[in-house]
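Subject: Sanity check before I submit

Could someone independently write out the structure tokens for this chain? I want to compare against mine line by line before I put it in a report. The sequence has 161 residues.
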Amino acid sequence: MMSAVPGGLFVPEPGRKIIARNRRAGFEYTLLDTVEAGLVLRGSEVKSLRDGKASITEAYARIEDGEAFIHNLDIPPYPMAGPFNHEPKRVRKLLLHRREIDKLLGKTRERGMTLIPTLLYFKFGRAKLELALAKAKKKWDKREAIEARDAKREMQRRTRY
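---
Independent answer below. Compare away.
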């Protein structure tokens, strides 16, 4: 997580290097709860992530047969891996505790709930994925969010001078 300091600036946690963010997640979904999961990766995928190349905007997580998986996580091929490269959008296993999987399974069975990745990062050298339990926003919810953001921006603009 990031910690807020006076002035609204965010300072990254020590030992954490952010690779990819899903900025659209907060606009498209109401984020209710977050959980940190490890990823089962191949060597060329880790190298590609260390280069800072990944996209989580179209990714989503599912719980299948008591295990968690991430779909559509795009990690481009590592150029130096040659014939030992990986598929960019293969299904990858997530590492979660059994009680976390059971909790998420119960929540995702509710109507309209889904698991959306919000952040992909390295934490002390290990690739981690932050998943959010989310509910899709309706069109009018999005309009309210835009109006609130514009009102906040206008208020900041007026107090600046």
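---
OP: Matches mine. For the report I'm noting this point. The chain has one domain: 17-160.
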